[in-house]
Amino acid sequence: MPRLALVLLLSALSGCATAAWAGPLPESAAGRRAIRGSTVEVIHESEELRQMREFDEQSFPRPLPGVPAPPPPDESLGEPARGPVRSASLGNGGAVGPDALPSTLRSPDQQLVKPNETPSAIPWLDQIKLPDLPVRLDPRVVRYLEFYKNDRRGRAIMTSWLKKEGRWKPLFEDALRRARLPVGLVYISMIESGFDPLDRSHAGAVGLWQFMPEGGRIYGLREDYWIDERRNPEKATEAFVHYIADLKERFGGWPLTLAAFNAGYGAVLRAMQKYNTNDYWELCRHEDGLPWETTLYVPKAMAVAIVGENKKLFGYEDVAADPAYAFDRVTVPSSMSLAAMAKAAGVTVAELTALNPELRRNRTPPEAWEARVPRGAGARFAANFESHREMVKPFVVRFGERLDEIAAAHGTSAHELRTLNGIDDSSEVRPGLTLLVPDGRKPLTPPPCDTTIVAVPDKEEAVAGRKRIFYRTLPMDTPAEIAAFFKVKPTELAKWNNVDLDARLASNMVLQLWVANDFDTTKAALVDPSRVRVVTVGSAEFFDLVEGKRGRKRLSYTVKRGDDLKRIGKKFNLTVADLERINRFGAAHTELTVGQKLIVYVPMSASEKAKAACALKPGGLEPAMKDKESEPDDDDDERDEVTVPEAPTARSERPARAEAPARAEAPTRAEAATRSEAPTRAEAATHSEATAKRAAAEEPVHSDVRLPRPPPADGRP
Asked: Which fold has domain 150-309?
């Protein structure tokens, strides 16, 4: 069975699509950040590299697990005998590995990719000028050469690459010659990044030479909030020169060296040890030898080096290369935005961005920095720097410090602080980060009536020999990190705050911690205890204060005859789903019963919100005797009942009650209809005035709308 037919059959049986991968879906980075609560790394891949990946997949299919090797060719039909590929060897060091092993001792061939013609039958191969990087005319190398010479896609890709090559080739060749390495290694950047210093792979490799974070750190490339030197053309090239020289020292031959640069030296060593060979081409043939991408990486590198040294032969002699990377170096004493630098130097922001790709926030870092400006603009920048200097200073973020707090302390807004520091995601602001803040401004006046409610399992709880502090959480905080910083046990933190140690915390939660009396609280940004009101979760006090701060009233509504969730929701501007969620109705819930109590939320007016905010006073910091509970209401034994100044039901229809009346008779259908009508403005005003007078006289007042008693402490509904 032909290989393609076998692939189609297996795909159909497994329910897999055989169409080529359509590429990533369009995404919103901001939307993903909001969902994740943390930074989303954006992949930056050129169109040329994407098309090359498509070509690799189409021309060199990945081996399918469990698919048997193709049967031996029928020599009677003129098919060549299957066996080791004897390819031409070019350059110094491209020797063919041992190929005289009996077929019974070889691993099955996973793939046998052939060019359209055998190398000896392709006349232009004899005309190529060899690069100083050793090459071998393996069938895969020849397939890539044909792609760049004859395929429309391949020619478009190579044209773009050779155009960009002009910008970087002088810099690369100079570094390679100083290290006495083949200048043909210039073309490694071509297949790694397409000569794009901003390129970022799916694996997190960055820059012209695609360094991973750990590799960059090993070779001295700085990577932090402000700077990523993997994108610095000069420093990354120096790091590449040292890295490739180290790999060459370990592996000796260039095919293994390049394979190790692609897959990591550990992966290559494991494959060598497993199959007991140091022949790259032999390792490419074996199951679970080298990664599929690496079996193509070395042939691709050899092919582009050949094309780069034979532009006329391949038809690229007329490609106009970009101007070489040229600039003046200038010292920027303090942080400066690229926009301000451009004005001082008399150039465009785009020019500065292209010359300084390592700057991650469109400005130089908080410390003095050596930047690059277009050739000839250095003296102009130095002369104009002072007139464009920005009045900013560095500020080191403490544990728990928030952007709005930092902004207010330095006389600015959180929005301006974000813009100044290029902050896209608040989760990037971590303790120890140096930010920039305006210099010379006075702190903003804190807003009035700004008391923080802290809900805890039991506000009366105390821990002997410790002091209580309050910490406001940040995005991506974990209980373990907070416990470690404040030197308490995670289990203690969980007990004091009812938190799950295995889950992350939401931002803006306020946790209480009982820390050692000698703990240095200046190391962290804590909530000011003089602006804190501690309440017990689920208590009537909790609901009153929390909902009041959110601009809502939490009320208890007594179900009347003829009521259903839709009708009740209409009275309070709530949906049926709202009422089901608020009252925790499950799927088994059916009908309401007369006299049943439902919880509803109604919005406050602007004046009520302001009054509620300023009525919220700090307190509850010290454990104390609980307030004496009010006497139970005689009719339903509920506590903490309140009079609602304005309810959605017609209060004029409510029958008067004595001090301890019996439960009222169920209303007639006509009465129920009357009660469902909204009160007129005059009725509401009359009722509010009467209510105020009764409250002043300290007379007991009852209402059809009540707050329920607090739920039990054990969490039962």
From this structure: Lysozyme (1.10.530)
Considering the four listed CATH numbers 3.40.50.2300, 3.40.47.10, 3.30.70.260, 3.10.350.10, the one that applies to the domain covering 392-438 is 3.10.350.10
Q: What stretch(es) of the chain map to CATH 3.10.350.10?
A: 392-438, 540-625+636-696
Residues of the chain with pLDDT > 70, as a percent, come to 72
Domain 452-536, second-level architecture: Roll (3.10)
Q: How many CA atoms lie within 13 A of 614 on its CB side?
A: 7
Burial, 211: exposed, middle or buried (Cβ in 10 Å; 0-12, 13-18, 19+)? Answer: buried
Q: For residue 647, give every residue at least 6 positions away whose Cβ sits within 8 Å of its Cβ, in sequence order, or none.
A: 555, 703, 704, 705
CA Rg value for the chain: 37
Highest mean pLDDT among 4-13, 225-234, 442-451, 457-466: 225-234
Give the separation between CA 426 and CA 38, rounded to whole angstroms: 8
- Summarised one tens digit per residue, pLDDT across range 123-145 is 899 899 999 999 999 999 999 99
- Does residue 649 contact residue 683 with C-beta atoms inside 8 Å? no
pTM, full prediction: 0.70
For the chain, residues classed under CATH 1.10.530.10 are 150-309
Fold for domain 540-625+636-696?
Membrane-bound Lytic Murein Transglycosylase D; Chain A (3.10.350)
Question: For residue 525, how many other CB atoms are within 10 A of its CB?
Answer: 19
pLDDT in tens, 331-382: 999 999 999 999 999 999 999 999 999 999 999 999 999 999 999 999 999 9
Residues in the chain: 717
Helix (H) or strand (E) holding 512: strand 510-516
Phi, psi of 152 (to 5 degrees): -60, -45
Residue 629 has pLDDT above 80, yes or no: no
- 513, with CB counted inside 10 A (0-12, 13-18, 19+), is buried
DSSP 628-648: PPPPPPTTT---S----SS-S
- What's the half-sphere exposure (Cβ side, CA atoms, 13 Å) at 624? 9
